[in-house]
UniProtKB/TrEMBL annotation:
UniProt EC number: 6.3.5.4
PANTHER family per UniProt: ASPARAGINE SYNTHETASE (PTHR43284:SF1), ASPARAGINE SYNTHETASE (GLUTAMINE-HYDROLYZING) (PTHR43284)
Identification of the protein by name: asparagine synthase (glutamine-hydrolyzing)
Keywords, sorted A to Z: Amino-acid biosynthesis, Asparagine biosynthesis
Gene3D superfamilies the UniProt entry points to: HUPs (3.40.50.620)
Organism phylogeny: Bacteria, Bacillati, Actinomycetota, Actinomycetes, Micromonosporales
Catalytic activity: L-aspartate + L-glutamine + ATP + H2O = L-asparagine + L-glutamate + AMP + diphosphate + H(+)
Pathway in which this enzyme or protein is active: Amino-acid biosynthesis; L-asparagine biosynthesis; L-asparagine from L-aspartate (L-Gln route): step 1/1
Domain of life: Bacteria
Domain Asparagine synthetase: 218-602
């Protein structure tokens, strides 16, 4: 039994990418176990080793060249074979990768080099490390840690306590010697064992298309993304919250080759108007079965935290809502669903950051001032902080360096983050001074070379939110798959992201219309009466009730805290705060990142006891 099989003991999928080198044979032998699969280089040496299902790999080889797509990508094998036949160098694949539908990893080999990349959204992440003297890639950081015997990097755990953790801090994995490949970039593994080369393959488009030009592109990209999931037939399920995002996905799915189950969880808040909107949409989708669950049967936020044992390779705030997110799985699988679709990602793509108006104010002042006045009225922005944010001309590097010195300061008015680079990060009172020192070290080291995701603050903020959401969804997908129902979020496919980001922000985000890009993209597909919604339900009541009802479990979590043992949090402060769930300070002091780290560390302890092979403590 291999160390990886011991660690991923429930048959979780993974794959390791190896260069065409003799040293790769030893790595492949260490991965051997039940259901291990191997794709080989033309030389016969292992190229891709791991566990995946039949429908998750499309591969074509021509001579010494080859292209493999792991995940969802409905490409015709003959088309892939033709492209592999023309491949002379792996750097040639940028445009090809950007043209594909779906969510997948791309692996290519040619001329003795291997290219490995994930997705734009972080739903598919790439990592690399040196194992047995050879550089290898993998879709999971914990697998590389198991192969190298790497220890947890205490500093990176401390970084994950930030709320929020600004770009690029989350790109660094939590094990020493394991490296991340940033979204939109690829890694090249050389056959001779030379250092890994990282290069960019995707850049955000210039947001210059009008709404009229961009809406058809968004419609086509999203329709293709949904069709990629429905084309196999059978039965699928789809969220139908009543919001515009899930409604769009559900209508598109209803036109495909699969039978569709629409799934609605009403909220506990009596002012929540999701259910009437969901019923209105379902009534216009003949052939779709609408399943409405009882609100009182829905698990609350913070439920079941002590029972989570999913093997994940990084902390996630998705842990807080795991029980709720997966509560529909048994009923949907019993009804025959093979895949569950969500509308997650639409909020960050069809709407966008108001931060674009920082640049627009200087380039198109008349139009920008009109819109800013509308936003101020809509969101009740106070004037002085709003003007201060608009006057702030610091580069991202200067902003980032300054943020490292403000981690203990009170939170500024939200508008400063909305119109700035991003929300300023904070460490809350229960985080120890030792942890704060580690975070400052990490931020100062990153500040020496940090670059924004875009020179435009709005585009930077949009991409950052896509990346953060993609990380959370990546872990939810792994948890849902283990629970018995794979899930997918078509809004976060690469082509959909590029199409949405190409639309002029003056038309994409406006105080006068709600999600105009999605409304226009879905015109003629979703009935106008369903596109008329301008509200969005909030789950604040559900979260507050969950904190009260699950107080005992949270206190038990802190009593056995791994973070406290590492000296990163004050156990007594956390217990005291948890015993007072109605404390007004919790409106500003956010527990999410701390709980995510704590639950993740508990999961590592469980894996360590099970396998005895993965190092989980700093030396």
């Amino acid at each position: 039994m291999s160390v990886v099989t011991d660690m991923l003991r429930h048959g979780e999928p993974y794959f390791v990418v190896l260069p065409d080198h003799e040293a790769g044979l030893a790595v492949a032998r260490r991965l051997d176990g039940p259901h291990t699969r191997i794709v080989r280089h033309a030389s016969g040496r292992p190229w891709i080793v791991g566990r995946w299902s039949d429908d998750e790999l499309t591969v074509a080889q021509a001579g010494s060249a080859g292209i493999a797509l792991l995940g969802c990508c409905p490409i015709d094998p003959k088309t892939l074979a033709r492209r592999a036949g023309r491949l002379r160098d792996v750097v040639e694949l940028d445009a090809f990768a950007a043209s594909l539908t779906g969510s997948f990893h791309l692996v290519a080999t040619a001329a003795g080099r291997v290219r490995f990349q994930g997705s734009v959204s972080n739903l598919r992440i790439a990592h690399h490390a040196q194992v047995d003297g050879v550089q290898v890639g993998c879709d999971r950081a914990d697998v590389l840690a198991a192969l190298t015997g790497a220890a947890i990097d205490e500093r990176q755990v401390a970084v994950r306590l930030l709320w929020p953790a600004p770009h690029p801090l989350l790109d660094t994995p939590l094990w020493r010697g394991v490296h991340g490949v940033p979204a939109g970039r690829y890694a090249i593994l050389e056959s001779g064992g030379r250092p890994v080369h990282i290069a960019r393959w995707w850049t955000p488009p210039e947001p210059v298309r009008s709404l009229a030009e961009g809406a058809p592109l968004v419609r086509d990209a999203l329709a293709d993304a949904v069709r990629a999931r429905t084309a196999a037939g059978g039965t699928i399920s789809s969220d139908l919250s009543g919001g515009l995002d899930s409604t769009a996905v559900c209508f598109l799915a209803s036109t495909g080759d699969s039978r569709v189950l629409a799934s609605t969880w009403p909220g506990l808040d009596p002012t929540d108007d999701d259910l009437p909107w969901a019923r209105r949409a379902a009534a216009r989708m003949p052939g779709v079965e609408h399943l409405v669950w009882r609100a009182e049967d829905s698990p609350l936020v913070y439920e079941g935290l002590l029972d989570i044992d999913d093997p994940l390779d990084e902390p996630t705030i998705g842990m807080l809502d795991r029980a709720r997110a997966l509560s529909h799985v048994p009923n949907l699988t019993a009804a025959g669903s093979r895949l569950h679709l969500t509308g997650i990602g639409g909020d960050h793509l069809t709407w966008c950051s108001e931060g674009y108006y920082h640049r627009l104010l200087r380039r198109r002042p008349v139009a920008a001032i009109r819109q800013l006045r509308g936003f101020r009225a809509l969101f009740t922005w106070p004037l002085r902080p709003m003007l201060g944010a608009l006057a702030d001309t610091r580069s991202y590097r200067r902003w980032f360096a300054g943020a490292a010195g403000d981690l203990r300061q009170p939170l500024p008015e939200p508008v400063r983050g909305t119109l700035g680079w991003t929300s300023p990060p904070r460490l809350f009172p229960w985080v120890t001074d030792h942890a704060a020192e580690l975070v400052v070290e990490a931020m100062r080291a990153a500040a020496e070379s940090v670059e924004p995701l875009s020179d435009d603050r709005g585009m930077h903020a949009d991409i950052e939110q896509i990346l953060v959401t993609g990380r959370i969804l990546r872990q939810w997908e792994q948890m849902s798959r283990r629970a018995g129902l794979p899930m997918a979020s078509p809004f976060l496919d690469d082509r959909v992201i590029s199409a949405c980001l190409s639309v002029n922000p003056l038309e994409r985000v406006t105080p006068w219309r709600y999600k105009p890009l999605l409304v226009e993209a879905m015109r003629g597909i979703v009935p106008d009466e369903c596109l008329a919604r301008t509200s969005k339900a909030q789950a604040a009541r559900d979260a507050a009730l969950g904190l009260r009802r699950n107080r005992a479990d949270l206190i038990a979590l802190w009593d056995q805290s791994r973070l406290a043992e590492m000296g990163l949090v004050d156990r007594d402060r956390l217990v005291d705060l948890t015993e007072r769930p109605d404390d007004p300070s919790l409106r500003h002091a956010v527990l999410y990142s701390t709980i995510g780290c704590e639950v993740w560390l508990r999961g590592l302890d469980t894996m360590e006891r099970s396998s005895g092979d993965v190092a989980t403590a700093a030396p």
